[in-house]
Amino acid sequence: MTREFTKLHALGCLAVALAMFGCSAEEDPVEPPCDARCEDGIAMLALRETLKLVYNITLQGKPVGEQDARTDCSFNGSAHVYGFATSNPVQGATEVDLTYELDYCAHAEFDEEPRENYQMGFLGVITQKGTLAVQPSATTALLMGSESISMLGTIHDPPRDYEAVGCALELGQSGNALSGTFCERTVGVDWGGQGP
Hints:
It is built from two helices and eight strands, in the order ααββββββββ. By secondary structure, the protein is an alpha+beta fold.
């Protein structure tokens, strides 16, 4: 009888411990599947961040006015950006009316978030008009468009192939959100980066 009481007591203590601390190892939250809209969203993020990189390399810190600059892209190809930029120091913003010619311009990002990973190349001409936030007091508000832009590469983690050839693009950025149409599909993504 004492032996059975000891076993029951041990089982009772185990039950209390499991109830207090859980009975299984902590699991990471399950990443929801990345459907076609998610894939397009990652591609739009890749495009926006590539334009941002080209701008930062070629034009950031340059005098305002007429702009015309070229650069090699981080992984492959090149970019030519030209147009106008004016500064508004009161608002902490730069007004831009720029054209980007991307010639197989490729960029990559590797992040802990699966939906912020990509290796993507771009071919085509994109216009960009609006406000770039330079200070925290301003908000980036841009309109970007292209009659024909092609994208080829991989997105997500684990990587999956992504390809879009000769697609029309109408994309707006407000703060950290991108939305619009691409290849006659509705696209959108919200991410943590703002800035130019």
